[in-house]
Amino acid sequence: MMRRQQQQQQQQNRQQDQQSKVLYELSALVLSLLRSPPIPLTDQSPLESRRPPSSTSTTNPITPAGFAFLMLGISVALMLCGSVTFFIGFMLMPWVIGLVMVFYVVGIVSTVSMLGRSILYSVKAPPSPRKEIPAWKLL
Q: Which residue ranges does UniProt annotate as crossing the membrane (predicted)?
């Protein structure tokens, strides 16, 4: 029993480690792409526009097409996430409106109930005996 729980725990740890590794690599890729500016487009031939690789930069600069595809991928991902979020909100909106209406009805019923109770009990209640106020307090 304990061995099975340990195996499940190890499997969960491996899965979390793998997810963390993928997220770390993706973040590193995006940051490295955003750090290197796109190569300016010129009218020169590809051989003339090539620069010798600098010794300080270990990553290759991103090409304009690569940068365009990166922006396209980011925008498509945002559109898909936005569309899914919109769809979920669109599907849940009738439930939210229905719940708000139920709360309004409950509030109206509660208010009418309290008003009716106060009117009925004030009519039914015997008059309270009046206290006589001493004359010296009236001065």
A: 67-89, 95-115
